[in-house]
Amino acid sequence: MDTDRIAAAAARAARPFADTEPRARARALVAVADALDAASEELIAIATRETGLAEARLTGEVRRTTNQLRLFAEVIVDGAYLDARIDDADPDYVIGPRPDVRRVLEPVGPVLNFAASNFPFAFSVAGGDSAAALAAGCPLIVKAHSGHPELSRRTAQVVAAALASAGMPDGVFQLVEGQENGVALLRDDRIRAGAFTGSTHVGRLLADIAASRPRPIPFYGELGSVNPVYATAGAVASEPGLLQGFLGSVSGSAGQLCTKPGFLFVPADAALQPVAAAAATVAEHRLLNPGIGRAFEERRASVLGARGVSILAEGTVRVDEDDQRFATPTVVEVDVETLRDHRDELLEESFGPLSVIVRYDDVAALPELHRELFPGNLTSTVHARDDELADGGLAELVDALAETSGRVLFGGWPTGVSVTSAMQHGGPFPATTTDATSVGTAAITRFLRGVAYQGAPQALLPPPLRDDNPWGVPQRRSAAGRSAGWGSLAGEY
């Protein structure tokens, strides 16, 4: 595979694609969504065979994938994401005469996206990172995941054909395979940003490559997360389905979700007998591939072998003739001191249907414990009665969760990430390499950079900054003379 040719094609497409009129680019994304929907039956059949994920799960994932493409089409047409700002020339500007300055967000250039294993549609060839990069106006190169190569190739064919039929430039979308090719492109000076969803180990290696280039580039890696959940005594007493909901979140898609709750904290006297009963009703599920299966098997053995661990549901791991693993849920319990003393064995993410229930004595001690043990997560969750939340007694815990997590939930379970304008799917390291969102419309900002034009003639300004505003995007304008009134909106200081 000629990575030089691929990078060159993406670089040639960068300016023409960036200059694409918003509605044309939006129509191209809709064309991709329509084409994927039309091919969904074929694609889902391939995905089922390659990943072992259930047809119903994959059907929902295709729907999410195509609709997030349509959502980004709406974002493009709206134009607010460009953050167009215009400061008119002002000789009386209070800090000193101000020139005409205009700022807008522009595409960074070619983006390299490393596809994920556990979401063969929503975080793969045409998934969220791909949609955000294309919506931003960046040529895209996707490094296919080795866990579903046939699906990646067929999806890429569908996407490329749809973009071509919509009149997008040659080189705007390409697929590569193989670790060496992915690394070679990440090192290529023509690549201007990277995205990744996967393990902490691999993500950190790639992030270090991106940072050590002669010209470093931003690298948005979504890595590991254990997503702790904290349940108060009130929640345990008033939510009869709490433990069943927990088991459902842990075992869904065989626990191979980045938002799976890896830890559930409950009061020391909580009755945990329903855990074993709930786990016994969960059928075995194939893990994504032999490599992930072996890693889960080793991780499970480490947790079960840690001192002070009590088994609530031992679970099983079955190996077939193709070296595929089929697992049922494993749940253990520990107290806080055991968790602290054996953090090396217990705190690492278990990518699969395994979770740890932790008994605590004092809810007031949870904020400090959380900051100590969980410095960076995609999500954290609180289960509490309304009166426990209303009296402010959990405010410090909520502050700790907000400091260390991208999304804080009150009730419910973190699996199932809604694609919305307000969603944050990121968090402090080690949840991500760069704390930005990879889900929702704000994800587009990762692939944009600010450019200011000072004293530019109208004919040379990009369309979002022109006075006639041909794209019809929102413009934030600061007219001359306003600086004299600074501070008046704030009242007396």
TrEMBL record:
UniProt xrefs under CDD domains: ALDH_KGSADH (cd07129)
Assigned keywords, A-Z: Oxidoreductase
Domain of life: Bacteria
Enzyme class (EC, first level): oxidoreductase
Region Disordered: start-end pairs: 460-493
Entries under Gene3D superfamilies matching the protein: Aldehyde Dehydrogenase, Chain A, domain 1, Aldehyde Dehydrogenase, Chain A, domain 2
E.C. number: 1.2.1.4
Domain (Aldehyde dehydrogenase): residue spans on this chain: 2-366
MF annotations from Gene Ontology: aldehyde dehydrogenase (NADP+) activity
Protein name per Swiss-Prot or TrEMBL: NADP-dependent aldehyde dehydrogenase
Organism for this UniProt entry: Agromyces flavus
